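User: Hey, quick favor. My workstation is busy. Could you predict this chain's structure for me?
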Amino acid sequence: MAHDDPQPKLDALDRRILGELQTDSGQSLDEIARKVGSSKTPVWNRIRKMREAGVIRQQTVIVDPKALDRGTCFFVLIRTSEHEADWQRRFLDALMKRPEVLEAHRLAGEIDYILKVRVADAAAYDVFYQALISDVRIFNVTALLSMEEIKATTVLPV
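Assistant: No problem, here it is.
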């Protein structure tokens, strides 16, 4: 699996290993090997190869947002009338420096960008909003408050 290979070939064992890592990357190699029906060394070698190929981008922990006083989630829809490279660079720079922005996507359709923003409360969202619009001119911003998180996962189907 070369790192520049756009579509690394994953077999059934690779997929089972990825499934286990996505569920709980804190498992020992012995546990993963037992669950996927292999032994420790081949599992380690496959994990190493998938890291080198960029299939596994990083290993991390998932923290309860409420534990860090970030229990309020807004989805922010942004429309812009600006489409030149300088505006886009300034906008992306503004997003990257804001830790409240967990995700940002450029969209097709009427909305240009959607942001997933986690803050303590509505007042904290307003502080974020004021900072964002002071950094870059935005044509229209709509903030949608998530009333309830129904499903949130980082596990991709394998």
